[in-house]
Amino acid sequence: MSARGGPFKQASLLLGLALAAALLSGCQTTRERLLAEGYPAPFANGFEDGCSSGRNAAQALGEFRKNVPAYLADRQYATGWDDGFRQCQASVAGELQRHIGIDSKADRDWRHARNQGMGKALGRASRD
C-alpha cells in the first residue's frame, strides 16, 4: 500500500476529525478518545507523543516525545506519531499566525495602497 493514498489518506482525515472532536470534548484525552473510537493502542500512543512533539516544534524550543524503539519496530506507533506530529504542528502554527495577524486585512490593505501608489508614480514617470 502507498502511504499517499487510499486507506492512509482516509485514516488521516478520520484522525483529524477525531482530534477535533477530542479537543472539543475537553474531558477525554486524545489517546482515550482514539482508543474509544477503535484505534489500536500503539497508534494512539504514537499520536499522543507525536502531537506533543508537533506542538513543541511549532513553538520555541521544546522537547520531543518519541519512543524510538517502538517507532522503528511498530508501524502503528510510527504512523500515529507522524500523524500526530503533522496535525498538531500545523494547528499550533495556524493559531500563532492568526494570533500575530500574519497577512491580516490591514496588511493586505496596506500592500494594495502601496501598489496603487507605485502604479500611479510609475505611470507619471513614463508620461514625462
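Next protein, fold it too.
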Amino acid sequence: MIHTVLFDLDGTLLNTIDDLADAGNWVCAQHGWPEFTVEQFKHMVGNGIPKLVERFSPADARTPEQLAATLAEFTARYDAHKEDKTAPYPGIAALIDALNTAGVQCAVFSNKADPLCGKIIEHYFGAGRFVLVRGSRPGVPTKPDPTGVYSLMQDLHADPASTLFVGDSDVDILTGHNAGLPAMGALWGFRGRAELTAAGADALAGVPEDILDYVRTH
C-alpha cells in the first residue's frame, strides 16, 4: 500500500488560476503590455513564478534586471490577492482527511515560491492536514528536477517504494518519474488528459476519490 502521497499545489489541490491570471494581467496593464486569457495562463504556469513572469513579459522586457523588477511586482500583487478567487477543488479536503485517517502521510511539493505555499495551504486547509509543505527554494532546482523531491522524502522518512506523486501537468509526471516514483495525473487541473497521458502518467484521477482507490490498491 502507498504510505506517502506528495501533491502538487496549483491545479491539483487548489484552483489558483484566476488569481494568478489576474495578478499577471494587472502587471501587464501597468506596463501597457498585452494581456492574456485564463486559458493562456493555464499553459504558462507550472514551472515556477519566475518562469511565469518571463512568459507573460514581452520579448523586449526580458533583461535580467527587468525580469527581476517584474517578478517583485507580480509577487507583491499576487501575495495580496492570492485568496480572492482561489478555492480547493471539490472533494480535496475530504480526500486528505481520508488519507490521514488511513495512516497515509500527505505533503505538498510545488514550484510556487516556498513562503507563498505555506501561507496558502494553511489558509485553505488549516494546520495539520499536511505533514510538510514545500515550494521553490533558492538553490534548489524546480520541478521536474527531482532534487527537491529527494530532500522532501528524506525529511518525511518516506520509502520510494510506497510513495506516490500526484499532479496535473507533464511537469508533475516527469517529476515523479525522475524521482523513481509512480505519478498520477489529476484530470481536473490546468492541463488535461492528453498532456498527462503523453507524459506517461501511471494512472489518471477523474475525481479525488480515485486517488484514494489507487492508494488502497497499490
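About the second fold: The longest helix spans residues 64-81.
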